[in-house]
Amino acid sequence: MKTKSSIDVNAVFNEKLPLVKLLPLGLQHLLTMVGSFMVPVIVGSSIGLDAKTIAYLVSAILLSSGLAILIQVFGIGKGIGSRLPFVMGSSFITLGPMIIIGKQYGLPTLFGSIIASGIIIVLLSFFFDKILLLFPKVVTGTFITIMGITLAPTAFKIFCRW
């Protein structure tokens, strides 16, 4: 009898899933990446950037998302990366502050605040399991649903302009 710790990890990673399971997973990943490139489009159009700069930001988010996916899937050392096929992308939760910072202080300050918050998140990630106990699933699920419902009309309007 195999315990959780004695599962052959290579067998799990090399497993070939049937097409019926792969199609919904592929669609989920596609929709996640579409959402990821909408963040720089929304921020860029909100702070008045030209199309060339917005395209640069979209390229940057796709590159950084790709690197984050590789780190998540393959991992670094023993403690970094889940070694699961997660899609990593940008978050819509930061749109409001990013637009405010971008309008008031410009792109360099916006990029600096993103880097600083990223460092803080990495440091907090080592304690996230303890922090997560403060937020029950019903709270986080409700918050994410409200956030999606609130942002959907804005994202749809901007998407239709393109």
From TrEMBL:
Residues passing through the membrane, by range: 27-47, 54-77, 83-102, 109-128, 134-156
Signal peptide start and end residues: none
Record carries keyword Transmembrane helix: yes
Keywords: Membrane, Transmembrane, Transmembrane helix, Transport
Family annotation (Pfam families): Xan_ur_permease
GO CC terms, sorted: plasma membrane
InterPro entries for this protein: NCS2 (IPR006043)
Listed GO MF terms: xanthine transmembrane transporter activity
Membrane topology field: Multi-pass membrane protein
Record carries keyword Transmembrane helix: yes
Localization per record: Membrane
Main location: membrane
PANTHER family: PURINE PERMEASE C1399.01C-RELATED, URIC ACID TRANSPORTER UACT
Family: Belongs to the nucleobase:cation symporter-2 (NCS2) (TC 2.A.40) family.
Protein name per UniProt: Solute carrier family 23 protein
Annotated organism of origin: Bacillus salipaludis
